[in-house]
Design brief:
Order of helices and strands: EHEHHEHEHEEHHEHHHHEHE
Number of strands: 9
Low-confidence stretches: none
Strand content: 15-25%
Strand order of the largest sheet: 7-6-1-2-3-4-5-9-8
Number of helices: 12
Mean pLDDT: 95
């Protein structure tokens, strides 16, 4: 089991409060060392702030972009690679996100869609513009639209913070799931074994986090037990499913396994936060990308799986010429599920410029796997 992220949340009143960022960066580094000493690989450390509207909204649009660029430069001077400025919640601030995205490289953010679908269209417009103004549409890796997302999610781009400084842990559990599914004879046996193994292993991480919290007097917010993906082909989420499926990911039985995994992840007896569910990010998992190429599932299937898991539609490549109306409809469907089922969901969509459904993406990124563009 790996630790995908240690994410520390801070509240800024002014963008000049760089001392809080430095303290968080120092803490992240020390926490990473402590986990490493206990045998855990920590892949990333991250910092998330309160929604940027709270500490930047009195400025003009040009000044906002300049201040965020200054924050990024300061972060880079501290070797911070992941910095989240939280969500935008108005049409005016969402409209500014593409400009922020275009002028930064490590800054992540999101938009907030309400239960009456407020900001859905504005979010779709932001996604479309980012796709047109960044190379291969890759800027959308750092932006998503969220619905019913609470503070303290350690995973980006949805992450934002409220209140006193705290830290949360995000895990990568695909290797344990593959191990259990490879040895189980059926879904019931897999669920029982997974419950035991994840309970034992995640409790160990929680114990270390609690010790760190006491040592540095920083609140431990919890563990997001989500089954985050792995770019390692041996630990693909999709290929793990297929140890139990009579067929390929997307075939009948996929929904049942998704529901089972979510039951286990939500019942782990630790202090949880965030999604704490199943992630199915198409372009972050070799198996999911492979099956997407074979068209064993589509966007409608992913929304269906989101009804029994989380976190929504993640790293889904779609045609570059998709209309704002169609993309808005996708976001509204996701939002309906989020509020009807009272769960956090988000959409990180990748319209690929000048490409159509069935063509391949070309991200050239260490974080993403190329795959065929989905039909919408």
């Amino acid at each position: 089991m790996k630790i995908r992220t240690i994410t520390t949340g801070i509240s800024l009143d002014l963008p000049q409060e760089t001392d809080k960022i430095k303290i968080a960066a120092d803490f992240n580094q020390k926490a990473q060392v402590i986990f490493a000493q206990q045998g855990y690989e920590v892949q990333t450390t991250r910092i998330a702030t309160n929604p940027w509207e709270e500490y930047l909204s009195i400025l003009s649009p040009t000044e906002i972009v300049n201040r965020i660029q200054n924050l990024e430069e300061f972060c880079q001077s501290l070797n911070i690679s992941f910095f989240n400025i939280g969500y935008a919640s108005t049409a005016e601030t969402i409209e500014l996100i593409p400009e922020i995205n275009k002028n930064t490289s490590i800054v992540y953010c999101s938009s907030k869609i309400g239960n009456q679908f407020e900001n859905a269209r504005e979010s779709a417009q932001a996604i479309k513009r980012i796709s047109q103004e960044t190379e291969n549409g890759y800027g959308n890796f750092r932006f998503c639209a969220g619905a019913n997302c609470q503070p303290g999610i350690p995973f980006f781009p949805t992450s934002y913070h409220v209140g006193e400084t705290s830290f949360a842990i995000g895990l990568e559990l695909a290797d344990l799931v593959m191990q259990v599914f490879s040895e189980a004879n059926n879904i019931q046996e897999a669920e029982n074994k997974l419950q035991i193994i994840l309970g034992e292993e995640v409790k160990k991480v929680e114990a270390i986090a609690e010790q760190i919290s006491q040592q540095f007097q920083i609140r431990f917010y919890g563990i997001d037990t989500s089954l985050a993906p792995s770019l390692d082909k041996q630990n693909s989420i999709a290929f793990a499913y297929e140890q139990l499926l009579n067929g390929k990911f997307g075939n009948p039985g996929t929904l049942a396994i998704s529901g089972m995994l979510t039951r286990v992840l939500k019942s782990i007896p630790v202090k949880t936060c965030g999604y704490s569910g199943l992630m199915l990010p198409v372009c972050e998992d070799v198996g999911l990308a492979t099956r997407a190429n074979e068209q064993t599932y589509d966007i409608t299937n992913l929304l269906l799986y989101s009804s029994v898991c989380g976190c929504g539609l993640d790293t889904v490549p779609i045609p570059g010429d998709i209309s704002i109306g169609k993309m808005t409809a996708i976001l509204i469907d996701m939002t309906t599920l989020a509020f009807k089922l009272n769960k956090p969901l988000s959409a990180r969509l990748f319209p690929i410029p000048n490409k159509k459904a069935g063509e391949m993406t070309n991200f050239n990124s260490p974080y993403l796997v190329d795959c065929q563009i989905f039909e919408c």
